[in-house]
Amino acid sequence: MSTTSETTTTGGRRVAVVGGATSGLGAASARALADGGHDLLLWSRDAERLDAAAQELVAPGRTVRTVAADAADPGAAAVVAEAALEAYGRVDVLVLNAGGPPIARADEVTAEGLRTAFQLLAVTPVDLANRLLPQMRERRSGRVIAIMSSGVREPIDTLAYSNAGRAALAAWLKTLSRTVAGDGVTVNGVLPGRIATPRVASLDEAAARRTGRDVEEVSRDSAASIPAGRYGRPEELAAVVGFLASDAASYVTGTTIACDGGSLRSLP
User: Which family, according to the similarity comment (predicted)?
Assistant: First the structure.
């Protein structure tokens, strides 16, 4: 099921499609792209929250539209792509982003859980990108940016579903980047570490329950383990998305950029 709503002012500019746009990293990225001169199509599961997000972003000369779709639904990509192209006729920037799957260790995953996680984190993003890439390639200009996880580079013990699904997406993105580079389309990923979002708050709460500690203690210890000594702010990651969407990043493709306060020990 899907619904659409619209908050429109005047004018037409570059168009960005942003998933998971009602909170956290998706909402911050939508704000950064709006401030950078883009019209927007926002999407996530909750139509009511999407309407509220659109109202916060509307401004003179800016168009903001929304479509409700669930990334875990096999039909979501078709709904979003159709809504974007019907509304604007083009998409210049595609931000692939969705909420995280359930917490699970590697020996706790199930076949059904993997199928759901892969739909959410790999199949729907790939499907959506492939539906919007032809018009980017035809115009010889476009940006595909995936917000993933530091677990792509260093798997996280309790996030086996996320590790697997996002790693699959990262491999596809790297492969795609070489396919479309000659058509003026760049393809990159952003790897958030511990960013102060509702998702990270829920992970801290789960860790507190699992270890019998206060959530404040869990968060404090987690922040202390980060070289920067704190959790990141959503707008700090959104600034990386904004850069990758810009003309300044036209020669950056096929890479992943960590925004993690120095947490990752591995080389890129």
Answer: Belongs to the short-chain dehydrogenases/reductases (SDR) family.
One domain, residues 124 and 208: no
User: Please, what are the averages of pLDDT over each run of 10 residues along the chain (268 residues)?
Assistant: 41 87 96 97 96 94 96 98 97 96 96 97 98 98 97 95 97 98 98 93 90 93 94 97 98 97 91
The residues carrying an active-site annotation are 161
Q: Verify that 37 and 110 share a domain, yes or no.
A: yes
Is 131 found in the same domain as 211?
Answer: no
Asked if residue 143 and residue 35 are part of one domain, the reply reads yes
3-state secondary structure of 255: coil
Element (H, E) at 38: strand 38-44
- 88: closest CA among 39, 127, 129? 39
Structural domain including 98 reads: 4-195+235-259
Check residue 143 and give its pLDDT.
98
Q: Could you tell me if 182 and 202 lie in one domain? A: no
Output the CA–CA distances (angstroms, integers) from residue 65 to 46, 72, 78, 126, 172, in the order listed: 14, 21, 16, 22, 28
CA distance 261 to 268: 14
Distance CA 193, CA 191 (A): 7
CB atoms < 10 A from the CB of 103, how many?
17
205 and 180 fall within a common domain: no
